[in-house]
Specification:
By secondary structure, this protein is an alpha/beta fold. The chain has 12 helices and 14 strands. The chain has 2 domains: 193 residues, P-loop containing nucleotide triphosphate hydrolases (Rossmann fold, 3-Layer(aba) Sandwich), CATH 3.40.50; 68 residues, Alpha-Beta Plaits. It is elongated, with a radius of gyration of 23 Å. The C terminus is likely disordered.
Amino acid sequence: MATPAIEARGLTRTFKGGVEAVRGVDVQVPEGEIFGFLGPNGAGKSTTIRMLCTLLPPSSGTATVAGHDVVADGDEVRRSIGVALQEIGLDPVQTGRELLELQCGLYGISGAAGRKRTQELLELVGLTDAAERRTKTYSGGMKRRLDLASALVHQPKVLFLDEPTTGLDPASRLTVWDEVRSINATGTTIFLTTQYLEEADELCERLAIIDDGEIVAEGTPESLKAQIGKDVVSVELHGADAERTQQVIGDLPGLDRVIAEQDALALFVENGAASIAEVVRRLDAGDVEVGAISVSRPSLDDVFLEATGRRLEGAGTDHPDEAAEQDEAAAKAVAS
């Protein structure tokens, strides 16, 4: 059996004050796969990726990347990976070409070889026409693509992308998706963290959903949605009492379960289209006024809802202690 590109067993990270950011994560990513790590802000995505990239030591557990232990063989891990974190660190006065040639030099690719590699990367991420422009004139999407290119200078076996499209407009997001697919087509394994459901659905062959530091679901996007096996009827309450509304709706034919959301009910039913008419009839008979009622096939957000009891949207922000320790660790890594 081939060695996984990434493997983590019981990976944990506890910050000051006893904050458990990552709690016993098990992950295995085969070579050549685009693997997604999906979850809200503060779920532990960035902390996990920083441990796998050797920017943070695990509190416990083990992890290997490209066959090297992230603690015992940190130097070998760093030689084998490319990393594009959420923070884009580009020199604003350098041109795109200058930045990539400098990055090549840092990896010992100089002279004609460095210029050739730079041109290859500019073509790969679609920045040939902007190569002589200073990066301060680049749009957010162009900066993100240049950051991807700089992470690929040394042809890494594994590429880590931490929320690569956060803050980008829809058109730029689609462009970055195309670049990720192109990079993966060369054989590079990609570990992608995201909080965008569509991004995970579009790009990832497999994904894990993480919440509160723990993996709550894992599989292909289609298999995760298929596991629900029901239609989802959403009833917007618009101020109606959730308990009273649920009592009035009662036990619908084919009803599997009901999850109360913020100002809504999610009904997991056998036949969503047929159930809507019955829901409306019962609400009318019970004199309960609600908002919109809709039906859909299960989505990744429904998978997240079933696993956690809430929607992915509207999640909280990163814990301040976690963010501070991440910044401190990153600074130490750069200094070393």
